[in-house]
Amino acid sequence: MPIRELVVTYDFPTDLHLGPQHPGIHGNFAYILKVDGEKIIEAKIVPGYLHRAFEKLMERRTWINNIALIPRVCVPEPDVNEYAFNAAIERIAGWEIPPRAKYIRTVVLEMARISAYLMYLASMGGGVGVYPLTQWAFGDRDYILDLFEALTGARVYHIYMIAGGVRRDIPEGWLDKLEETLKYLEGRLKEYDKLVMNSAVVQRRLVGLAPITPEYAMEHGVTGPNLRATGVPYDLRKLDPYAAYDELDFEVVTEKDGDAWARFMVRRREIDQSIDLLRQLIDKLRKDDTPHIHQPYSGLAFKVPQGEAYVHIESTKGEFGYYVWSDGGFNPYRVFVRGPTTSHAGVLMEDIVVGQELADFSLIDGSFDICPPDLDK
Known about the structure:
Layout: E1 14-18, E2 30-36, E3 39-46, H1 54-58, H2 79-93, H3 99-128, H4 131-152, E4 161-162, E5 165-166, H5 174-197, H6 200-206, H7 214-219, H8 225-228, H9 236-239, H10 260-287, E6 307-315, E7 318-326, E8 334-338, H11 341-352, H12 361-368, H13 372-376
Antiparallel strand pairs: 1-2, 2-3, 4-5, 6-7, 7-8
Helix pairs in contact: 3-4, 3-10, 3-12, 4-5, 5-10, 10-12
């Protein structure tokens, strides 16, 4: 019997579907790539696999009920949503927040930054093939989650900040545990540097990969670490301070090359920065005896005076903003969330990956650190 010849023909270019469940995609998100061999010639995002209609749902819930909903707008760093929403309420109501509440909120925000950056390092570890980094970073992140659990009662969605302050004060001995964890993390980060940051293999993969210029970044609405990686010192914690950041001593972290390595290094250096900021806050909390909330209130329904406010905040993903409009009732009349992912995934990724190698796609996607539920909201 003659051997049949198998003939396979391809029509180039062809479509390649990545996600929403794929180890190279960071979150429940999908892309359709048009490739020609190993070259990407077109990319389209496919959102819609996560939480949707957040803003409309907020209009149907009381002010305090929304605090359990909004952390899901960005799961790796949920506390930025709690702060921005409650700060908007406070601005409309004209409430002055006690210093202790500001310090505690800032502690929570900086812990959330460390937690989110460790998740970022873990995801990038898989992309560069350094799998111990993935295991180490996720393992060390659990120590931060332990602190959140002791403080708020929850590990991921904390629902801790409320209009006027925080739900309860810091437990006895918690600051000592935080100090121990920070000291532990400093030692671990030295091991991270030996394994990854000083690795010639990692640098070969990331240096020069998918660079963007400051002009391109600002034109396309890029914010956060992705903007600072181009050399632009834009950090809302410094430029438009909120919470207790105006009382803290720190400099804006920047890199200059705007490539995947620069984006990686900004985030790595900002972990060190957050550790330093937390130590400053610990000192302030030990000396402070003001209340942890503006005025105690009970029940699930209270009215907010008529008015509107916009509050923006620096997150690890970029600039988060909440526009809140009250008509004087028990629910928000309108809420609009300005998240960074629309710019980073919806505009930047579709443009920047064109001409790149398929093998680098996951690294480029990871380096911008997008948050899929933020886009799906």
